[in-house]
Each structure stands twice: as C-alpha cells, then as structure tokens.
Amino acid sequence: MPLFQRKSDEQKRQEAEAAQLQQASQDALAQGGIPLQAQRRLDELRGRGGGFFTSDLTVDEFVLAGRIGFHPLTQVMGSSIYHVGWQPTPGSWGYRGFNAGGFGQELTVVSRAMNEARARALGRLAEEARRAGANVVIGVHVTRAEYDWGTDLVEFNAVGTAARFKDAPAVDHPAVTNLSGQDFWKLFRSGFWPMGVVAASTVYYVVAGWQNQWANSVWGGWANQELGDFTQGLYAARHLAMSRVREQAERSGAQGIVGMDIEQSEREHEVELGNDRKRKDMIVTFHVMGTALKEMVPKIPAIHQVLDLRAESSGVSGNQLRASEKGSER
Predict the structure, then answer these.
(1) Can you state the angle between helices 36-48 and 108-132, rounded to 10 degrees?
(2) pLDDT tens, the chain, 330 aa long
C-alpha cells in the first residue's frame, strides 16, 4: 500500500464543512451565543412541538409545575471558561497608606473576569431555553471551578430545566430563576413572576495596618482585640456585591430579590517587607445570587367555597354553601 493517499473530493468537502462549522461555532461563542450543533438540536426540538423531554426536576417539582400548567421541555445549560488577566497586587511599596495604616481595594480584574464568565454562562442557558420555545427556566444552579493546572482560569456552569406554560406562545427572553420547583410553584400561585437571576462577585484585597500587624505579632497576640482592617474589608466586599445585584434587579424592573445565596471566603496573603519582616494581608471573596421578581398584573382572586357554621342559628340550612373571595391571588 502506498504511504500517502490523495484525499477524495468527498473527503475534502466533509473537511471543509467541518471547518466552517467549527469557525461558525467559535464566532457564535465569541458573541456570547451557543455552538451551531446546540442551535440545530434545540431548533429541531422546538419544531417537534413537544413529546419526550429531559429534566433535572425532582418528582415533586415536576408534579407541582404541572399543576400550574408548566410542562418541561428540556434540560438546558450554559458554560464559560474564562482567562483571568494580570492583576497588580496592592499593598506593595508606593501604595498610599502602606505605612500609615491598612486600606483595601477591589481586585477589579479578577472580579470582572468572574462576573463576565458567569454572565456568559447564564446568557447561554437563556439562549438554549429561547430556542427550545420555553417561557421559564426553573431550578437553575450555578457551579464554579478553578484548576490546579491553570491558576489563571475560572469556569462557570449553569444548569436548569426549560419549561413552557400550557398554550402560551414562546418568548424572546425566558424568565430564569434559581428557585426550586416547589418555590416557583408558591411564587406563581402568590401572583409573582421571576424577572431573572441576578448575581455578582467581588474579590477584595485588605492591607493590614499597624494595629492588625501588631495583633498578629508575638508581642501583640496576647490580648483579645478586633482586627478592624479585616472587618472593614468584609463589609466593603459585601457592599460591592450586594450593590451590583440590586442594580441588576432594578434595571429589570423587579420589586425585590428572593432566594438569595451568599458565599463568602477569606484567605491570607503574605507579603515580604524586607529585613526578615512579613505582613499578613487578607483577600475576601463574595459571591451573591438570587431571583429578581415582580408582581403579576392583572391580579386574579381565587374563589373558594366554605361552609357557614352559623347557618343553623340563622335559620339557613347547614348544607347551604356560600362563595367568598379570599385575599389570596393566583
């Protein structure tokens, strides 16, 4: 057999199509979208108009969603692996306040990378739901990962179940919520609608001032005392994260946020000061996520039949029922 064989015209055509498909998928990802293979699969699913579905809902969640007219279409997901750019380290020589006392500042490059990666993952999840013809994505959970082999990489994955309300038309912007199926059922029955998932991350660096350094030294470690610089850094990081989710909710026209999930972590960062001296600073990370909601209009009062226990004393038959409107709303 010859060592080298010339490719047939069919092989060349298939390779060219594969290259075009790969390039088109890369272009779609660069614009925050999803690959072409996923687009075609979801478009085909929508064209079939229902039938078999996949879901990560529990049995209780599935049953409750069906009771209010929502039927699952498919499991949807969004992912993003993001490169974190170079971030200068605060607290080195030349920074204002190094000798006078502690100070803090956000590591904006790291925070921005996390927020952008999560936003892309959630955006791709919503795009999959839109192509499937969904009205809402229930039970969205977001996971985050970092790699030992790539310390400058961060990954976000969002997974949920796309569902459609019975006989309702598809929408361009399906609602996304991190609430469980049970909580979504309660929300909908109470007359509220999710406006979307709001989320933010903040990575904050706190430089230890003289008081913190003394407290961590051999001589100052004997006494109980609060590390004021670190405490202030925690509040500053939390304020930034909460402010960002509030801004997102207000932009969507929401009235509030429910299902808040707050993840907090701290780690020490040791800084060499020279002459065998070191300083222990702190890096604070906050991740916040919840569901923005808004009350639905028009309101539909629920009608209940109740037994009038005062019927016999008033001369009315005890089996006679009267309808009364309750304050609860659908």
Answers:
(1) 30
(2) 455 566 676 666 666 766 776 777 677 777 777 777 777 777 777 777 766 788 888 898 888 888 888 999 999 999 999 999 888 777 554 444 343 345 688 999 999 999 999 999 999 999 999 999 899 999 999 999 877 666 789 999 999 999 998 877 778 889 999 999 899 999 999 999 999 999 999 999 988 766 666 566 655 555 666 677 888 888 999 999 999 999 999 999 999 999 999 999 988 877 776 777 777 888 999 999 999 999 986 554 454 555 666 655 444 444 443 444 444 443
- Token pair recorded at residue 113: 């990378």
Q: To the nearest 10°, report the CA torsion of 217, 220, 223, 224.
A: -60
Q: Which amino acid, residue 142?
A: V
- Max intra-chain CA distance, the chain: 107
Place of tokens 């047939």: 8
Answer for the pair 216, 297: CB distance below 8 angstroms, yes or no: no
Nearest 5°: phi and psi at 90? Answer: -70, 170
End-to-end Cα spacing for the chain? 75
Asked if residue 85 lies in contact with residue 113, where contact means CB atoms within 8 angstroms, the answer is yes
Choose among 62, 61, 110: nearest CA to 83. 110
Residue 100 contacts by C-beta under 8 Å, 6 or more apart in sequence?
A: 209
* 325 DSSP β-pair partners: 303
Q: CB burial class (10 A; 0-12, 13-18, 19+) of residue 214?
A: middle
3-state helix, strand, coil in the chain (%, to 5): 35, 35, 30
The two tokens of residue 139 are 């039970």
Pick the closest to residue 105 from 201, 237, 204 (CA basis). 204
In DSSP terms, 271 is beta-bridged to 279
Edge-to-edge strands, sheet with 153-165 = 70-83, 153-165, 136-146, 175-176
